[in-house]
Design a protein that fits this description.
With 104 residues, the chain is mostly helical. It has one domain (2-103). It has helices spanning 2-35, 42-61, 74-103. 5% of the residues are buried.
Length: 104
């Protein structure tokens, strides 16, 4: 049981780190969208490939009222979802794994 608990602890740490990196990717993509960079730049294309599928999913969840403002709220929704996943699911998984390790 201890090996399983250690696996869950490390898994929660790795997933949390990956979500933190993706948060930085989103922030960079948002900042780049403000300056309207060259769409053929390889870095810009890479960031769009990483973020646009997730943003598109968030846009489908938003009501049409938000689109009339001209502001894209999908990065905010995605960042809130990442915070929820990290603070609730991954933290809960980590604490459960620590309890499993202590019980063994």
């Amino acid at each position: 049981m201890t090996l399983f608990a250690l696996f869950l602890i490390e898994l929660s740490k790795i997933l949390s780190m990956l979500l933190q990196i993706y948060t930085y990717v989103i922030l960079i993509a948002v900042l780049l969208s403000w300056v309207n960079p060259d769409p053929y730049n390889p870095l810009v294309r890479f960031l769009r490939q990483l973020t646009e599928p997730v943003f598109h999913g968030a846009r489908r969840l938003l009501p049409a009222v938000f689109f009339r403002t001209g502001i894209d709220f999908s990065p905010i929704i995605v960042l809130l979802a990442i915070m929820l996943i990290r603070n609730v699911l991954l933290q809960g998984l980590f604490e459960w794994a620590v309890q499993l390790r202590m019980a063994a």
